[in-house]
Amino acid sequence: MAVNDFQTLFQKYRLRAVVFMAGCTILVTILSLIAHVMWIEHMPGSGTALVLFSLNREMSLGTWWSATVLAGLGALTGLICLLQSDASRSERLALLTLAAGFVFLSIDETCMLHERLGGKIHVEGLMHHARWAVIWLPPALLITGVVMWRLWRTRKKFVIGMCLGIVIYLGGAVGMESFNSTQRVKAESHLGIDPADTVDTNQSFVPDDWRRDRAYYPFVIGTNIEEFLEMLGPLIWLWVLLDWNNLKSQAQDRKRENTIVPAKPLMQPKAAITIKH
């Protein structure tokens, strides 16, 4: 398939793809909220519903949906890199780094890397359950900053769109995570639970977690908002990536126009012949 064919497909199905995935994201969030309401109201089958749909549980439907979307973004970014025949080496390297970052986030969703590594350190206070950010956030922001800086000169609109998605994603992953950490600490204090005795990975149902979910509504609502924002950010990235070729800078357009060599006419005009009388 030619490069132009891919570009046509991106433009033709971009809106449909993003709307469909946004609908799936909203559905996953609603199912999670319903599962928690079922558990709070002690409805039959509530335990199974939490296992399948709770966004506060690892290996649920929400986890696999997020991992699939992020892996797809990695594949799409890699494809865009391959299609850019006129891209500079710096631009290609930035795109490949971005693709690797999406794949890493997908792996993190399924393998719980940030929870496992965060469990290796100890932070006192309200950030106890969000301590993974102390380790992961600085290098992630550094690498992302370098990538965006590399793309800024030629793709300003692209960088702005990606940064918007990053703000939304971090608003959930860090902002709401920090808020939820405070709510979780308050809930544990209310229930008389020692934070050091709780499990952060949520790999299985822990009785303390069950009591906390049932006893403290702000924690339940906060975790669902957190995960929704973490799913919304990638949708912004998808929209921006599918519009890659329309988000180049005006300077790049002028550069390409200046490199175009005008075609020579097929036939040279003959000189006029004058006849002297």
Q: End-to-end distance, in Å?
A: 66 Å
Q: Please tell me what the overall shape is.
A: globular
Helical content stands at over 70%
pLDDT averaged residue by residue: 78
Helix-strand sequence: HHHHHHHHHH
Separate helix tally: 10
Q: Sheet bearing the most strands, described?
A: none
* Model regions low in confidence, pLDDT < 50 over at least 5 residues: 199-215, 249-253
Brief descriptors of the model:
277 residues, mainly alpha, 10 helices, globular
Task: Write the topology of this structure.
Layout: H1 3-40, H2 46-53, H3 61-83, H4 89-111, H5 113-118, H6 132-152, H7 156-191, H8 207-215, H9 217-242, H10 250-259
Helix pairs in contact: 1-2, 1-3, 1-9, 3-4, 3-9, 4-6, 6-7, 7-8, 7-9
